[in-house]
Every structure is written in C-alpha cells, then in structure tokens.
C-alpha cells in the first residue's frame, strides 16, 4: 500500500472512531473529519438528538468547524472523510463549501438498513416538486424577484 | 381571497422582507420563516459570508432557531415560507426536520439568473457518484459497518 493510500486510511480511521464515540455518547453513529494538506482542520460527530438540531449531521458540524478554523466560507483544497455516504443535505453543503474530494465508508443502503432516511430523501429530491411527500407551493414569485434585482445591482456584494 | 390564502401571503411577505433586509445587511438575498399554528417560531436570513458558514442558508438558520424554540429535533405541524425554492441542502434538511409543507416564491432558475448554484447542485446530486464534479471514493466499508452494528444493537437509542 502506498503512502497516499495509507494517509486516506488513517483519516478514515479517525472518522470511524468519531462515529463509534458519537453513538456511545448518545449521538447518531456518524463521524467526519476535514483535512487540508494532510492536517485535520475540523471534526464532527452527529448531534441531532443531543442538540435538538436536525441539521447537526457529522459532516455539517465538521464543515462549520473547519470554516471557523480557516476563517472562510469556502474549504478550498480540503478533503472530507466520513464513515457513511453523505445524505443530500450534507452532499449539497459540501458542494457549497467547495471541497476537493469526498471519501466515505458505508453507503446510503447500509444507513437504510439501520433505520436512516438518507436513501428515501435522495429519492424524494429526484422527484418533481409536485410529486413529493412534503407538498411544495409557489406564491408571490413576482414580489420575490424585487429582492433578487436589488442583489443583482449591489456593487459591493460577495458572491458565493 | 380566503383567510388561509391571506395567512400564507402574510407569512411569505415576512420572508420576502427578511430577504431584503438580509442583502442590505451584507448577507445573501434570502429569508425564511417557520410557522406553527399560524405563529412564527423561527426566522432566518442568509449568513454564509457574514458568518463564514456555507451551511447558514436562511432555511437552515430558521430550522435551527425553530427547533431551539420547540426544544425538539422535529418540526411537526410546521410550515416554512421562504423567498426562494430551497436548494438540495435545505430541502433535505426540511425532510429531516419533518415539516408539513413548503411555500416558496422565486425558484432555482431565478436564483441561477443572479449567480447562485442551486440548480447546478440539483443536477450534480442527480448524477451517479462516479460522474460528479467532486470525486467520491469509497473505502473501509467493512470497518464502518462495525459502528452501524453497535448502533443497531443499542437498546436506548433515539431514532430520527
């Protein structure tokens, strides 16, 4: 096994250890680490039920901590290691953050086998808005475009 | 216009006002309110660049605040009003939170027209993991399943 493969396994082993610590501490069985230049800049474990925060998946916690450490809203040249394939929330967050690569261990079907909805939510997002379990209604689009125009015309805005 | 339609418009108008306040304050042009029994329990505006937090979309901020107010990781019987169609991160978070309905005003194409990646991320999530812009690699699945088994066997766990 070459050096780079060893590094990936080392960081994944950290994520797996975080996942096991998390479930022993009363959180969900998920852990993630974000690495830049082979140095860990953010760790996270699942805190949904501990913090009453449905957004507190391991990846989200790690992203927020890594961004705080970097003092940036982008995670350029960063890699995330997570013990399970990210759900759509976390995967989209990783796109917004701009990470370079994603390493995962278990997958959405493994998560489904222990009762998690990741796969179901992937299926829901693939449906058209009118066919989803949560009804989606559009109203006042014209009024909303006023705010979008204001943004478009702002000269000192920070795009992201 | 009947009373219920008026209520929906009233709450959406609040979300639109939050969006315009947000962009004037240096955040992105997005605002959201979460309502339970016609009462606002959580507001949010986009704070990505203000807080260096790529997860701080208006819906996510509103979800976290509403959950704190309810002392719960679920938002049963709650409706969200947001000035733009939720991106995949926020939509999946709304599934995890278990909201009852989603009202939005502008859509992903309107967001794309002012430079936001929502639509692009929807397209990426629809691709198979091997065809995405951010490379995804699976490793150490067998080792990860150990943690999942520990979770599965926990007797006092809180499913979510």
What does this structure look like?
- The structure is a homodimer of 160-residue chains.
- The first copy, chain A, has 160 residues and is of the alpha+beta class.
- Helices cover 48% and strands 18% of the residues of chain A.
- Chain A contains seven helices and five strands.
- Chain A has helices at residues 3-24, 48-51, 58-70, 88-97, 108-113, 118-126, 141-153; strands spanning 31-36, 39-45, 78-84, 101-106, 136-138.
- A four-stranded mixed β-sheet of chain A has the order 2-1-3-4.
- The mean pLDDT of chain A is 96.
- At the A-B interface, helix 1, helix 2, helix 3, helix 4 and strand 4 of A face helix 1, helix 2, helix 3, helix 4 and strand 4 of B.
Short description:
With 160 residues, chain A is an alpha+beta fold.
- The total of helices of chain A stands at 7
Q: How far is the N terminus from the C terminus of chain A?
A: 39 Å
Taking pLDDT < 50 over at least 5 consecutive residues as the criterion, the unreliable ranges of chain A are: none
Largest sheet composition of chain A: 4 strands, mixed
Mean pLDDT metric of chain A: 96
Strand order of the largest sheet of chain A: 2-1-3-4
Q: What is the subunit organization of this protein?
A: homodimer
Order of helices and strands of chain A: HEEHHEHEHHEH
Anisotropy-based shape of chain A: globular
Which chains make the largest contact? A-B, 88 and 88 residues
Number of strands of chain A: 5
């Amino acid at each position: 096994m070459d050096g780079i493969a060893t590094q990936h396994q080392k960081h994944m082993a950290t994520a797996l250890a975080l996942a096991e610590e998390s479930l022993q501490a009363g959180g969900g069985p998920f852990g993630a680490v974000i690495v830049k230049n082979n140095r860990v800049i953010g760790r996270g474990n699942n805190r949904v039920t501990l913090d009453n925060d449905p957004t507190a998946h391991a990846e989200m916690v790690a992203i927020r901590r890594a961004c705080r450490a970097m003092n940036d809203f982008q995670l350029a040249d960063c890699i995330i290691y997570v013990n399970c394939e990210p759900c759509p929330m976390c995967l989209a967050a990783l796109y917004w953050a701009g990470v370079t690569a994603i390493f995962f261990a278990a997958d959405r079907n493994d998560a489904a086998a222990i009762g998690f909805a990741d796969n179901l939510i992937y299926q829901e997002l693939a449906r058209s808005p009118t066919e989803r379990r949560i009804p989606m209604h559009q109203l006042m689009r014209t009024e909303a475009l006023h705010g979008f125009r204001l943004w478009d015309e702002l000269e000192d805005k920070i795009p992201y």
